[in-house]
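lol so apparently i was supposed to do this last week
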Amino acid sequence: MPVNVPTAVTASAVVLSLLWLRQCSFSTWICVTLVPALSYAVLSERTKRTAIQDKVVLVTGASSGLGKAFALECTRRGCQKVILVARTKSRLEEVAAECVSQKANKNFTAVPVPCDLTCTAEVRKMAEQVTKDHGALDCW
Ligand SMILES: NC(=O)c1ccc[n+]([C@@H]2O[C@H](COP(=O)([O-])OP(=O)(O)OC[C@H]3O[C@@H](n4cnc5c(N)ncnc54)[C@H](OP(=O)(O)O)[C@@H]3O)[C@@H](O)[C@H]2O)c1
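anyway here it is w/ NAP bound
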């Protein structure tokens, strides 16, 4: 039977670590398990935030489904502005209000921009207007 060397090495390391931990004091257990787990939890949350913190994000299909979920997630992770694009203005306004209610950035704004993305002329007009009003986009 073929032996997968990396898996065998990892499994041996885990077994040896567990054997070593059996003889350790409670404080060593805490240092070896709890401290790295807590550090990971805190740092990974912070890393997630810094990627989008204070950024200007344009989301297409933002009035429902994946686009709406993405807009809300960017909002919760501290983006500064979310520009919401889809065809139905009323639904975009509802999503904008929901984003504002969940904002994590004190300067946050949500901007509904109705546009039919299948119409080249409308897309061009929307891109020009968005660039004029909000400057360069960080993410779209
Ligand atoms: N849901 C999933 O699990 C999944 C998985 C993989 C891929 N996808 C793909 O991801 C995309 C979004 O899925 P979803 O489930 O979030 O769909 P959805 O809930 O139907 O959302 C579609 C969004 O796109 C907007 N939209 C549709 N036609 C448009 C147009 N011509 N111009 C501008 N906006 C338009 C809709 O708003 P208006 O009607 O107001 O314009 C709505 O906000 C789809 O292409 C889907 O195939 C979805």
